[in-house]
From TrEMBL:
Signal peptide: none annotated. Pfam families: SelO. The gene is Selenoo_1. InterPro entries: SelO (IPR003846). Coiled coil: none annotated. It comes from the Eukaryota. It comes from Crocuta crocuta (Spotted hyena). This is Selenoprotein O. The keyword Glycoprotein does not apply. Keywords: ATP-binding, Magnesium, Metal-binding, Nucleotide-binding, Nucleotidyltransferase, Transferase. Its cofactor is Mg(2+).
Length: 591
């Protein structure tokens, strides 16, 4: 406990100079490690420098489980960041090279035309932000989530980071159209960082306009919430608003510039720090700041790592390597391709962030590339695990100067273990997708055999596994595949399909204390019936551009429970083959 208080006190002292200059009347933390603000919806709101734990672990009094009905007493804080991490001393908002800091203060630029609310996530509002859904109908809410209103306690920040893009060091990148509004402490004692995307220019905008368009914002809003429902670690989306502000984009980087509508997404995550957050500090030799940021990240987000231990950076790296392997294996288990796995898009907390030209694979194809600007297929779905290794190596290179020779050797050994970690988790996930229990020698071959048949027949990835979850063993044994199992009909055209079925049924017989109904129940709980296919998102976008948000709302509803059958989703064809109009649909690169 003494070491923890000592760390917090040192962080506080280090940040006081910045607080005095920058907090515009927001009080500095006291000598103790927390600050009590008494006017949060009738209960105390604690802002502190402790780890991100529950209120029970921290010994908090249980706050009344009540949702805020307005934003009048709802507050954010930037103190936990600003008390420790230095801010750019230049206050003007213009594009420039920034050095020796983590953030620049940058205020959102309000949209000029009327702002409409497209959608909100009830779960994020109520379960994370402690806001009653009715708050989303207020003008204050619209002004907040569009960047017009700055809430009490907020000091809007743009984060400075760099990164390797398509394998090449790209220099300073940073939040070019995103504003970190502050940290919210939920009534469960969890810290969540709120960030607007598409909210205007910052010092890191480079040649951009600071805006996001409706097309890409609908996709990000829907996908981040869909991924959460698929049980994949991800940033969340609280709201999406659209305006009539004109934003010009070259959607496919082919010289065809078109007018689109500006939109803003309110994104929520435990942290927005990424591999590039550390890379830029190492690149410019800012090693003291690199150490400060790493210690802060460990303290806030890695409770299993003791921040005062000499080997803390090695221990931190071990966790990141393991959780990155887990994340990418989860992506693969649902056929998700991120599309832009640059180091500036890879979270240090191993959550999915920065949804751009992503895609859910339809016909199984290891070479599936959702990003039409990825000409060489660097980020194809079958290469994501290798890219994870590349990115982790760049992370290790970034904090390598802080390690002694023995620690460097240990870290290198940890990185070498990444392929085994990834493959082990991949294997576990795909065994579960096939309903296999226990360990058998031929399991790997059985999985590989099925994927081979799927590739050769271009069978639908999602529905092949889902329909294997729904068909009975007797139907499979007789090769009597009902017409509604259209994906299995496709794969059954391969001459080796009967051989695979025989091996599969034989393996299922070795499941101890299992029945066919239990197998199907187990498999339908891990094999989704619905994912956000590109054509589904495109259909919702086209309607939204006409101010018809009905399909956005339908997809929200369906993707909230992707493992359950929905009558409205079936009528919309969400579990049917790709419609003819969408066969050659391309994912836009620009956002």
């Amino acid at each position: 406990m003494t070491r923890r208080i000592g760390y917090a006190f040192c962080c506080m002292i280090r940040g006081l100079a910045f607080l005095r200059l920058l907090l515009f009347g927001v009080p500095c933390p006291g000598v103790v490690c927390c600050l009590l603000l008494p006017d949060f919806e009738g209960s105390a709101h604690f802002l502190h420098l402790s780890r991100n734990k529950s209120n029970h672990e921290l010994g908090y009094c249980e706050a009344e489980a009540k949702l805020a009905s307005s934003l009048d007493f709802w507050t954010l804080s930037s103190e936990n960041l600003l008390a420790v991490l230095p801010v750019d001393p230049v206050k003007e908002n213009y594009v420039r090279k920034v050095k020796n800091c983590i953030f620049s203060i940058a205020f959102p630029t309000p949209l000029k035309s009327r702002v409409r609310l497209v959608a909100v996530s009830k779960e994020v509002l109520e379960d994370i932000l402690d806001l009653d859904l009715s708050v989303s109908e207020t003008d204050d809410f619209i002004r907040l989530v569009s960047g017009e209103k700055i809430i009490s306690g907020s000091v809007p920040l743009a984060h400075r980071y760099g990164g390797h893009q398509f394998g090449i060091w790209a220099g300073q990148l940073g939040d070019g159209r995103a504003h970190l509004l502050g940290t919210y402490m939920s009534r469960q004692g969890e810290k969540w960082e709120l960030q607007l995307k598409g909210s205007g220019k910052t010092p890191y905008s480079r040649n951009g306009d600071g805006r996001a368009v409706l097309r890409s914002s609908v996709r990000e809003f829907l996908c981040s919430e869909a991924m959460h429902s698929l049980r994949i670690p991800t940033s969340r989306a609280a709201s999406l608003v659209v305006s009539d502000d004109e934003v010009w984009r070259d959607q496919f980087y082919n010289g065809n510039i078109v007018k689109e509508r500006g939109a803003v997404v309110l994104r929520v995550a435990k942290s927005w720090f990424r591999i590039g957050s550390l890379e830029i500090l190492a690149h410019y030799g800012e090693l003291d700041l690199l150490r400060t940021l790493l210690d802060f990240i460990i303290w806030e987000h890695f409770p299993s790592v003791e921040v005062t231990e000499p080997n803390r950076y090695v221990d931190f790296f071990s966790v990141v390597v393991s959780e990155t392997a887990q994340l990418i294996a989860l992506w693969m288990s649902v056929g998700f391709a991120h599309g832009v796995c640059n180091t500036d898009n890879f979270s240090l907390l191993s959550i999915t962030i920065d949804y751009g030209p992503f895609g859910f694979m339809e016909a199984y194809n290891p070479d599936f590339v959702p990003n039409t600007s990825d000409d060489e297929g660097r980020y194809k779905i079958g290469n994501q695990a290798n890219i994870g290794m590349f990115n982790l190596n760049k992370l290790l290179q970034a904090f390598n100067p802080l390690l002694d020779p023995r620690q460097r050797q240990l870290a290198a050994q940890i990185l070498e273990g990444y392929p085994v970690l990834y493959y082990t988790r991949f294997r576990e996930l795909f065994k579960a997708k096939l309903g296999l229990l226990g360990e058998k020698k031929g399991d790997d071959d059985l999985i590989a055999f099925l994927l081979h048949l799927m590739e050769k027949t271009a069978a639908d990835f999602t529905m092949t596994f889902r329909q294997l979850s729904e068909i009975t063993q007797s139907q499979l044994q007789e090769l009597n595949i009902p017409q509604q199992f259209w994906a299995l009909k496709v794969i059954s055209t391969h001459k080796l399909f009967p051989a695979w079925v025989s091996q599969y049924l034989l393996r299922l017989k070795s499941n101890k204390n299992d029945s066919d109904s239990e197998r199907r129940k187990r498999m339908t709980s891990v094999n989704p019936r619905y994912v956000l296919r590109n054509w589904m998102a495109e259909s919702a976008v086209r309607k939204a551009e006409r101010n018809d948000f009905s399909e956005v709302h339908l997809l929200q509803h369906v993707l909230r429970q992707p493992f359950q059958k929905h009558s409205a989703a079936e009528r919309a064809g969400y579990s049917s083959p790709t419609p003819s109009w969408a066969k050659d649909l391309r994912v836009s690169c620009s956002s």
